[in-house]
Design goal:
The structure holds two protein chains of two kinds. By secondary structure, chain A is an all-alpha fold. Chain A folds into three domains: 33 residues, no CATH class; 221 residues, Orthogonal Bundle (MetI-like fold), CATH 1.10.3720; 61 residues, no CATH class. Helix content of chain A is 71%, strand content 1%. Chain A has a two-stranded antiparallel ribbon. In chain A, α5 packs across α10. Chain A is globular and about 115 Å long. The model of chain A has no long low-confidence stretch (mean pLDDT 89). By secondary structure, chain B is an alpha/beta fold. In chain B, strands 1, 4, 5, 6, 7 and 13 form a six-stranded mixed β-sheet that branches. In chain B, strands 10-9-11-8-12 form a five-stranded mixed β-sheet. In chain B, strands 2-3 form a two-stranded antiparallel sheet. Chain B folds into two domains: 208 residues, Periplasmic binding protein-like II (D-Maltodextrin-Binding Protein, domain 2), CATH 3.40.190; 96 residues, D-Maltodextrin-Binding Protein, domain 2 (3-Layer(aba) Sandwich). In chain B, α6 links the parallel β9 and β10. The chains are: A mainly alpha, B alpha/beta. Chains A and B meet through α5, α7, α8, α9 and α10 of A and α1, β2, β4, α7 and α8 of B.
């Protein structure tokens, strides 16, 4: 045995072996599958169950969508087409209802020849939002953003042009008073400006508006609130409430942190009361209870009432989200602001709020998304929201009675587009505002 | 903030419109428009079409009242009301007239301070089951799961009926008719119960109506009628007699087509009084003498409305049944115009 070793030819490889491909189990799709789906017996079982569930869902959904019908006038016709094309007993989506009634889901009962007005308002809305949302857009366009509420109102509701103009003039009056007095006493100037604006709106606006309307009757055909419905209604309520609730929420959050007893108490009471009450209750209050308190015959616009209630509701939640942002700021930031000699408003504006709001972005956007989806609750006060109000109206026609999933899928899809857009924008904003180096 | 204050000014302008009196008739005339509370969507009874024009059996009554009071059946603002908000909407003055397939019951008439102006549709509650369930009578439904809409009289009737017959059931609460259909078709409940008119229209929309049966038992009385606020008798009279005019017109053979001819040439004094060519009946209710003529010209008589909206010629296909004239074995009986 011992000599065998001596006769062995000694071999040393003088070239490197070519790199072999990794074993099949350690590369590509197989590796990914092993690591992510079958990395243990528990995960393997879960994967198989998941795949089965997915298969079951797709087995129902894929043929249903594949058999969809877009050209039909009634549900019966839809069924007939599906039965003729795919055989007796086949099931398919009757998306023809969307094609037939999409205008109603979009505009509600807005007069058809005036559809251009909400469409134009939507386009202008994006133009007005651009300078607020994106810093690349010239700042000068902010002037248009400030004017948009009036332009939007005029386009949507119509009527005499002097209504929004006179309302706008109230701000001008207030601003003029503030400018005139600001040098002497800052607080008095703000209060007097408020009083002047209120006097204008409550006492002078009506007669001035009527007088102007007689002199120059510039008017669009007026559209009443009961004609609003569908996504025009959802967007009107959603956009107004979102844009109003953010400033109100910031004020409430600061009020709750204030050292002044009255302001703090009022803020806390408001926030806790609103958060303790379901939105539906507020809407019922707006639509039904208010009528008992106001004199009969009072024409207090229902959409306006709903916007106010939804705004108050969202503002309370925003206030708490922002309070979280304020609490997350290190104490040193407040002290640094004091050390620089900034007064309260300067400190809030320049140091505290920019940081607190940045921290609060995800929470604020969640609240906005929730608010936008909550606009469908207005169906309970008799407004025709897209999800149930318009859908029920469509189902009540003899043509489409019996249709169930298709409207929900359509409306859900549109809502998804809006909410997903908001969510992506908030992620973009967070990235842009990122100042730390992690 | 800007918008809130801005809308506030509009509100004040509205407030300045002033304090109105309790006389609904004067309010409606002054406003030039009738606010009518309707179902936001009930096949055949009230539904907006693709262009937003409301039509249906209950809607026609609103139009008839508008024709009587304002002379124009189009001067109606339809306020969609839910089952929960309808009574408050009426009591608070948001609507002048509730024509929303509302059952006339004791407590609604008294406790809820409403006045029912009459009955425009006699309904009753029934059951629908699948054919293959093999049930032929509601008495065989012991232990069944039943789909039932919450917040309606049908819910109470169901409980009463099963208790009275010593049977048990499991309720499946649903919110709307569409949801009920879906639950029932998906097998979520053995039986679906609502008013017979609703069952008929629901079944007509099924893909396989022949596989579903409506059981013969009618377990409740559901007289559906228009309601007004308690205490405003003049307005109540207007609505009651508008409804009566529709019913009487059918009885006397006055139709939308021949109403002018009848008014001019009919020898029947009752028709003459109805159509205002004789007597001063209109003035007694605060209207003019042509009111009933306008109503019938605008909407047709009761029978015409019925067959145009829910009758056997429509996809809903309801038979007249209890809603035939008293002379035809039904319950419709208009008080005399005298």
């Amino acid at each position: 045995m011992s000599e065998t070793g001596t006769q062995t030819v000694r071999f040393v490889r003088d070239t490197m072996l070519p790199e072999a491909a990794p074993p099949a189990s350690q590369s590509g799709a197989v590796k990914w599958l092993r690591e992510n789906l079958f990395s243990g017996w528990l995960n393997t079982i879960l994967t198989i169950i998941g795949a089965l569930v997915l298969f079951q869902i797709l087995r129902g959904l894929v043929p249903w969508f594949a058999h969809s019908v877009w050209n039909a006038q009634t549900l019966g016709e839809c069924r007939q087409i599906i039965a003729e094309t795919w055989g007796e007993g086949a099931r398919g989506a009757c998306l023809a209802v969307v094609r037939d009634r999409w205008a109603q889901w979009t505009f509600g009962f807005y007069p058809a020849h005036l559809y251009w007005r909400p469409v134009l308002a939507l386009v202008l809305l994006f133009a007005a939002l651009a300078p607020i949302l994106f810093s690349a857009v010239p700042r000068r366009l902010m002037a248009f953003s400030a004017l948009f509420p009036f332009v939007g109102y005029y386009l949507l509701w119509g009527g005499t042009i002097w209504t929004p103009v006179v309302a706008l003039a109230g701000f001008v009056v207030g601003y003029a008073v503030w400018r005139a007095l600001a040098r002497r006493n800052a607080l008095a100037a703000i209060l007097l400006a408020l009083v002047a604006a209120l006097v204008w709106w409550l006492l002078l606006a009506g007669p001035v508006e009527r007088a102007l309307a007689q002199v120059a009757p510039l008017a669009l055909q007026s559209v009443r609130s009961s004609s609003f419905g569908g996504f025009v209604l959802a967007l009107t309520i959603g956009v107004s409430a979102i844009s109003l609730s953010l400033p109100l929420g910031i004020m409430l959050a600061l009020g709750r942190q204030s050292d002044m007893f009255l302001i703090k108490t009022l803020s806390v009471c408001f926030i806790e009361f609103i958060r303790g009450v379901p939105l539906i209750t507020l809407l019922f209050t707006a639509s039904l209870l208010l009528n008992y308190f106001l004199p009969p015959g009072t024409n207090f616009d229902i959409i306006l009432r709903v916007i106010i209630m939804v705004t108050l509701f969202a503002a309370a939640y925003i206030a708490e989200v922002i309070r979280g942002g304020l609490a997350a700021l290190p104490r040193g930031q407040y002290e640094a602001a004091d050390a620089l000699g900034l007064d309260y408003f300067q400190a809030q504006r320049l140091i505290v709020l920019p940081q607190a709001l940045k921290i609060s972005i995800p929470g604020i956007v969640s609240t906005f998304i929730g608010l936008f989806k909550d606009t469908t609750l207005v169906v309970f006060v008799g407004l025709l929201d897209p999800l149930k109000g318009i859908t029920d109206a469509v189902r009540a026609s003899t043509d489409w009675k019996g249709i169930y999933w298709e409207p929900y899928i359509f409306v859900g899809f549109i809502f998804f587009l809006f909410c997903f857009g908001m969510s992506r924008y908030s992620m973009y904003l967070e990235r842009r505002l990122k100042r730390d180096h992690r | 903030m800007t918008k809130t204050v801005f809308f506030g000014t509009l509100t004040v302008a509205g407030l300045a419109a002033g304090l109105a009196s309790a006389a609904t008739l004067d309010d409606v005339k002054a406003r030039g428009e009738l606010n009518c509370g309707v179902n936001p969507g009930l096949v055949g009874f009230a539904a907006p079409d693709a262009s937003g024009t409301w039509a249906g059996f209950d809607v026609s009554l609103c139009r008839a009242v508008a024709a009587a009071v304002l002379g124009d059946p189009q001067k109606v603002r339809f306020v969609p009301t839910t089952a929960e908000t309808r009574f408050t909407a009426l009591a608070s003055g948001e609507i002048d007239l509730l024509a929303r397939n509302t059952t006339w019951t004791f407590s609604r008439d008294t406790d809820l301070s409403m006045d029912f102006a009459g009955v425009n549709y006699y309904d009753g509650q029934g059951f629908m089951v699948r054919q293959d369930l093999g049930v032929t009578s509601a008495k065989e439904l012991d232990g069944a799961t039943v789909c039932i809409q919450t917040g309606t009289t049908t819910e109470l009737n169901l409980a009463d009926y099963f208790t009275a017959n010593g049977m048990t059931y499991t309720p499946v609460a649903i919110q709307s008719n569409a949801e009920g259909e879906q639950q029932y078709l998906a097998g979520g409940c053995d039986a679906y119960t609502t008013d017979i008119s609703g069952l008929a229209s629901t079944r007509a929309a099924f893909a396989d109506p022949e596989n579903h049966v409506i059981l013969p038992e009618v377990i409740s009385k559901e007289p559906l009628g228009p309601a007004v606020r308690h205490g405003d008798n003049q307005w109540g009279d207007v609505v009651r007699w508008t409804l009566n005019a529709l019913i009487a017109a059918e009885e006397y053979g006055v139709t939308a087509a021949n109403v002018e001819d009848m008014a001019a040439n009919s020898p029947n004094p009752e028709i003459k009084r109805l159509l205002g060519t004789e007597g001063e009946l209109g003035a007694m209710t605060g209207l003019d003498n042509d009111w009933a003529k306008r109503v019938i010209a605008a909407t047709g008589n009761y029978g015409e409305i019925f067959s145009a909206t829910i009758g056997e010629e429509t996809p809903i296909g309801l038979a007249r049944g209890l809603n035939a004239q008293w002379t035809q074995g039904g319950l419709l009986y208009a008080q005399p115009f005298r």
